[in-house]
Amino acid sequence: MCGIVCYNGKKSAVEVILNGLKSLEYRGYDSSGISVVTDKIETLKRKGKLKNLIDEIDKIDNNANIGIGHIRWATHGEPNEINAHPQVSQDGKFSVVHNGIIENYRELKSELEDEGYNFKSTTDTEVVVALISHYYTDDLLEAVKKAIARLKGAYALGIISEYEKDKLIAVRNESPLILAKCDDGIILASDIPSVLKYTKDVVYLENGDIVEIDKDSYTIYDKNFEKVDRDIKKINMTLEQASKGGFEHFMLKEIYEQPEVVKKTLEVNLKENKIDFSDNSIDQDKLKSIDKVYIVACGTAFHAGEVGKVAIEKLAKIPVITDIASEFRYNDPFIDENTLVILISQSGETADTLAALRESKKKKATVLAVTNVVGSSIAREADKVIYTLAGPEIAVASTKAYISQLVTVIMLALDFAKKLDKIDDETYSNYIAELKTIPGKISEVLKSESTVKEIAKAIKDDSSMFFIGRGLDFLSVKEGALKLKEISYIHTEAFPAGELKHGSIALIEKNTPALSVITQSKLAEKTISNVQELVTRGAKIFTITVEGNENMADFSEKIVFVPKTLEMLYPILSVIPEQLLGYYTSLEKGLDVDKPRNLAKSVTVE
Ligand code: F6R
Questions:
Q1: Distance 330 CA to ligand 1 centre (A)
Q2: pLDDT tens track for 369-404
Q3: Is the Cβ atom of 324 under 6 angstroms away from ligand 1?
């Protein structure tokens, strides 16, 4: 998620904007920039840390009273100075900062190019400033209205122009934006922490709102361009609370962001109900020459990859081998020019995954990266890159990045299946329709929080816990077991439910906790039998299953239900209570949830 801070008032715009941006630094970003209006628009942008911008801030006028600022987490285009925001129009007269994604930017870009516009960046945002400049005659507000009427997607915008030196215009559509009223000016910001140093009085702008700010007054227009009054609310949060979006920890905030992450992944990668990764996916001809796929990753990303294997084999009918990145190179993998290697990595910097990428390229495989960080090492070196759209993930334990990886690999499997003609239209459309219901269904599962809290209380003093499931449920419990162990320090082990009786069941004694996930209809009876084997030996059972399945009531101390969906999509729902279980158990034990011992967010050593 990028951050916007804009100011119009009596103070130094540079000071207010930089303070606002500093308060967002904790989230991670790859570049930053600021534009101010003096007798012209002055802009400074730098790649990397905010310090790089601050060190050279004297290059623009510190006395300017109106300006727009941004820290960027790249989604379109490499993180560099050209792609950093603000984006300035080719004539230098307009400047724009933007959060969100303009879905139809390619069409708009080619339309404007045909009219002779010269684009400099590879961002979707430059299209916005180009449109405003295109429509401007003598009224900035009118030009903005015309420009946004052409945009599809999510956007929060801050806009200034050399033609109307006292004016700041902002627009909100889906991406968050607040207006903060200070004694001596107005701040517009994407996030509450950016304004707390100056005021606690904010207006939460609504979708479709346009704000016109002159030096000491502002006017809000709603989506029908009617003037509206919006209430000013008092913020009662500390800076730390506000940084976490009001949640106690980043991990919980990120768990709750998951419906939005799925929504965004679908919005960006679906065009007219068809999956469209544009040329970031593998094209049909190349795909026809592929005789096997390797999916290689570490930890949570590997667990997403294992679901990807099932999806690609089931839907696209290509054999898939999964391998842990740290093992892959030493396994002498059977790779040639007909192999596709898919690497999954949130950070895009994991040393083992990067080494697997280099090994694959050496052996002439085609390499496709699925990563969350634009311009990361893995993204740069892969032949093709599909970006997950989770936004910056701060908690060490991965949650929303995992969900975005799951949705992306399932969409990739559908994309391959379609291109290889392995899926009929009805099945394909069913998948798309069902994927669209997933954000709402994740929100439903999140309501199980209170039951999960009770499970957390029941297991917090245990030293070990079993996780069991079959098929996709086994893959789900592998991730659940990892989540619990990494932040609660309880030893966990995930088993295919039928495998326990081949040795490990010897460990089950009275009150040994076990979590079973049962969503796969063909395997449910089998897993239930395995659960009974544990019950007989005294285990205390907790279950995650599909609503309507009452079969587990007699065996389980607590049950969490997930809404019905397609079998292939259950891992996206069943992992949610498992993530919450990790979180609440860690909380019960008074541990450092966001920064567990011995772990780092990005593992750049082999
Ligand atoms: C667990 C977790 C790790 C990472 C793994 C790979 O919550 O975050 O298991 O998934 O270290 O990291 P990336 O995805 O950055 O390559």
A1: 20
A2: 999 988 889 999 999 999 999 988 999 999 999 999
A3: no
